[in-house]
Amino acid sequence: PGGKRWLVWLKLDCGNGRAGIRPTDPEALALARAIAQGSPELVTLVGVYAHCGNTYGCRDIPAIQAIARDTTAAVLEFVTA
């Protein structure tokens, strides 16, 4: 509808393989920039997120923590870039 503003989150796939764009994909930054700069009067890129669904197969807490650390590092590296 006219006058509607869209708030957009960009999903990063940090190993789950289900949805989102890999933060290391050469097109990922271009996509984020296109969302942020394409139509600022209509669309606002408010952030990025990732879901650690790849922890579901983990058998212990250290394995879950390792995936969480890797995901956090990947997201921070992406938003810093």
UniProtKB/TrEMBL annotation:
GO terms for molecular function: D-serine ammonia-lyase activity. It holds the Pfam family Ala_racemase_N. Residues 4-55 form the Alanine racemase N-terminal domain. One of its GO terms (biological process) is D-serine catabolic process. This is DSD1 dehydratase. The lineage of its organism: Eukaryota, Metazoa, Chordata, Craniata, Vertebrata. The gene is Dsd1.
